[in-house]
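Worked problem 6 (solution included).
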Amino acid sequence: AEDVGEPPEAKMLDIILYSREQIVEERVAQDGVSREEADASLPDCPWGIISIKAQDEPFETPMQPITAMRNALGKAEGGSGVP
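Solution. The predicted structure is:
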């Protein structure tokens, strides 16, 4: 493999959070567990970090097409259920 050197340092981090309720809904849809089981399996906090995107722009960049597609497919496919 060719040495491509050090990756550049990002100027910004875009932190993607989901509410506890959204995470519970996705666990129920994906894992087939009850709401109570999903809720009990999570740490006691109102928000969860879903993604940390390194970027150089000082504003939120558009989501990647694969993310938009998963969101449109729904919670059972790992999306938010919001197209």
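Discussion: Residues 20-31 form the longest helix (12 residues).
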